[in-house]
Amino acid sequence: MSLLGKYEWSDINVQQICDEADIARSTFYSHFENKQELYDFGFARLEAHIKNAVAEKATGRSLDGNRKFGFLPELLEHIKQHQPIFCNSVTGKANCISNALVFAKFRTLIFDFINSEIQASSFAKTINEQSIIFIFGGIYSLMDAWWVDCTKMPVSQLLDIIDKQVDRVLAG
């Protein structure tokens, strides 16, 4: 993660990953065949972490209960914690096609969380695919504007803004 805040994904090699993690190359290769496997593992781990955190924290956030996405606080905290990756992606310090691929995977993860929560709620019968895409686009755009500003706004403030917009859309 720290390397993504400094370099383009395509420029990061296994040796740099090993050096950053202070492990031998043999240790890396005993767990992963290549950096793509590490990439896939990282996203799977992030997804599992967010799902587990939502289940454990019981924040009272649910689409059926108060029209709030449960995954958002944990995701926004993750972004805040890894601010250099997001900030550098827009300031040009690490901006290229390969990082666009990283962000494409990140967008897919967010869409999947939104879609999963909607499908698990009573809104599943009333919200069509285009509306889900619209909700995702709004949330992602607000988050994008937030990290363009290098996450200067507190997470709680952004969460409140997103929650109000989602509530308006779902209230119909």
Structure description:
This protein is mostly helical and 172 residues long. It has a single domain (3-171), classed as Tetracycline Repressor, domain 2. The chain is built from nine helices and no strands. It has helices at 14-21, 25-31, 35-57, 63-66, 72-81, 83-91, 97-119, 129-148, 155-171. α7 (97-119) packs across α8 (129-148). The longest helix is centred in the N-terminal third of the chain and has 23 residues, at 35-57. It starts with 13 loop residues before the first helix and ends with a helix. The relative contact order is 0.13. The model is unreliable at 91-97 (pLDDT under 50).
First-residue to last-residue Cα separation: 39 Å
CATH topology: Tetracycline Repressor, domain 2
Overall number of domains? 1
Rg from C-alpha positions? 18 Å
Helices, by number, come to 9
Helical residue percent band = over 70%
Q: What structural class do you assign from the helix and strand content?
A: mainly alpha
Give start-end ranges of low-pLDDT stretches. 91-97
Under CATH, the homologous superfamily reads: Tetracycline Repressor, domain 2
Chain-averaged pLDDT:
87
Q: Approximately what portion of the residues adopt beta-strand conformation?
A: under 5%
CATH class term = Mainly Alpha
The major pleated sheet works out as: none
Q: SSE order, as H and E?
A: HHHHHHHHH
